[in-house]
Amino acid sequence: DDPDSALKHFKKTAAIDPKYKLVYSDIAKAYLKKKMIKEAIGSYRKSAELNPDNPSPWNNLAVLYGISGDMGKAKQLMEELIKKFPDSEAVKTNYNRITNS
């Protein structure tokens, strides 16, 4: 419940091992608690790039694009995700929400 402390510790972890699985997703979540959408997008993007076979950071990135008002990017990314991760329930749910808005 302390996003500032979480950011401090997660950033230290990322500095020690930048390829640590999903640390950038944890950083993004802390930024979201602080309502820092742009920073959260950057962190989810980094997490997605480091974890290309995990749908979660990609899915969260697409949702944040939509929240930030960039529906074009959100829809484009969801189109790619539904092809790459057709069995992911989270991707299917957000694909329907984003592409039908």
Textual characterization of the structure:
The protein has helices at 3-16, 23-33, 37-50, 55-67, 71-84, 89-99. It is mainly α and 101 residues long. Helix 2 (23-33) packs antiparallel against helix 3 (37-50), helix 4 packs antiparallel against helix 5 (71-84) and helix 4 runs parallel beside helix 6 (89-99). The longest helix is centred in the N-terminal third of the chain and has 14 residues, at 3-16. The protein is globular. The termini are far apart. The model has no long low-confidence stretch (mean pLDDT 95).
Task: Give the SSE map.
Blueprint: H1 3-16, H2 23-33, H3 37-50, H4 55-67, H5 71-84, H6 89-99
Helix pairs in contact: 1-2, 2-3, 3-4, 4-5, 4-6, 5-6
What are the key terms here?
101 residues, single chain, mainly alpha
Low-confidence stretches: none
> How many strands in all?
0
In DSSP terms, counting alpha (H) and pi (I) runs of 4 or more, how many helices?
A: 6
End-to-end span in angstroms?
32 Å
Question: DSSP strand (E) fraction?
Answer: under 5%
Sheet having the most strands = none
What would you report as the Rg, rounded to the nearest angstrom?
14 Å
**H-E order:** HHHHHH
How would you classify the quaternary structure? Answer: single chain
Helical coverage, percent range: over 70%
The shape, in one word, is globular
Structural class: mainly alpha
Mean pLDDT: 95
